[in-house]
Amino acid sequence: MTSPEITRKSWLMVAALGLVWGSTFMVIEVALEGITPFWLAAGRIGFASLLMIVVWAAYGWRLFLEQDKQAWGTLATIGALSSAVPFMLLSWGQQYVTSGFAGVSMAAVALLVLPLAHFMVPGEQLTLRKALGFGMGFAGVVVLIGGQAFQSTGASLETAGRFACITAASCYALSSVLVRRLPAIDPIGLATVLLIVGAAIVIPSAWIIEGPPPLPSGKTLAILAVLGLLPTAAANLLRIFVIRSAGPTFMSLTNYQVPIWSVLLGYVILGEPLPASLLFALVLILAGVGLSQFGAIKRLFLT
Questions:
Q1: For residue range 195-225, what is the model confidence (pLDDT) as tens digits?
Q2: Among 47, 183, 184, 267, whose Cα sits 20 to 30 Å from the Cα of 35?
Q3: 130 φ/ψ angles, rounded to the nearest 5 degrees
Q4: Which sequence ranges are marked TM in the entry (predicted)?
């Protein structure tokens, strides 16, 4: 396993992921008007896996570039942790918690990656500067979302819902670290297999929990296609490229961008008001990124 290499391309890919995932929340809200939560997850993962199978076939079905029988078990684990399990946990948990708490939970992915990468990924050692930077970025997200993130909904299952959101964040963090630890592997094949595993879990789960799939309208089908193409298939492939080259810690910076893009796009497209805390939150997040990635930023401008 080579040491992480953060380049200009790495920064561009992370920025693109932040924008794509930040805009996904608006699309999901519209989709939920015509389909249930678990079938929404099943539809986007199912469509994305079929799309990636076609792409994978065009590239010759390549997967492992060096033989490692134990890696198949790791692939199955990553497939469950990177999409199916957290999708279902969030779909269930968000019924009982505030949307702000769910947002803070996703921002916590970056903090959860730090100790995992320190012990499991060579070249990703935890330093005081890195910890302070990620903590500052997390504080910026909390400021942006506001106090409502920690308000109680009064739901009887609120504690369980919060636990489900935190567990989903832990799944994303662990899957990122495991992707980095895989042996030499083709990224297109890897992205496809992970989506196939996710679809194999979430589709029967949706059927058991919500019954047969509803008959969606043309509008809902079009939205599912968009969700499957961009924030699921394309973003999953891009995520793998970032993790395999720049490492899971750098990849986790995406989680600090998502709420910023969500707020800005809500203002531009939906006319939602900008929170008064936006500027302060943005300063905290950018300062945290700058502190945690000081070395990478320095190399970026010196090369």
A1: 999 999 999 999 999 999 988 899 999 999 9
A2: 267
A3: -65, -45
A4: 12-32, 38-59, 71-90, 96-119, 131-149, 161-179, 188-209, 221-241, 253-270, 276-297
Average pLDDT over residues 53-60: 95
- Mean pLDDT, residues 85-99 taken together: 84
How far apart (Å, rounded) are the C-alpha atoms in residues 162 and 90? 9
pLDDT digits (tens, 9 = 90+) for 121-158: 988 888 999 999 999 999 999 998 877 677 788 888 89
6 backbone dihedrals φ, ψ, rounded to 5°? -100, 120
Structural domains of the chain, count: 1
- pLDDT surpasses 90 at 28: no
CA distance 253 to 21: 13
Residue 1 domain-assigned? no
Q: What pLDDT is stored for residue 37 in this prediction?
A: 86
- 70 versus 175: the higher-pLDDT residue is 175
Compute the distance between CA of residue 23 and CA of residue 126 in angstroms, rounded to an integer. 31
Has residue 302 been placed in a domain? no
Residue range(s) defining the domain that contains residue 226:
8-297
pTM for this model (two decimals):
0.90
Rounded to a whole number of angstroms, the distance between the first and last alpha carbons of the chain is 24
Q: What tokens does 26 get?
A: 């608006």
Residue 34 lies in a domain: yes
Q: What share of the chain is helix, strand, coil (3-state, %, to 5)?
A: 80, 0, 20
121 residue type, one letter: V
Alpha-carbon distance of 37 to 42, in angstroms, equals 9
Distances (CA, A) of 174 to 73, 83, 110, 255, 269: 15, 12, 11, 14, 34
CA angle 129, 103, 117 (to 5 degrees): 40
C-alpha span between 100 and 263 (Å, rounded): 12
Arithmetic mean of pLDDT over the chain: 89
**Cα separation of 43 and 226, whole Å?**
11
* 2, part of any domain: no
The CA distance from 204 to 270, in Å, is 35
Q: What values do phi and psi take at 114, rounded to 5? A: -55, -55
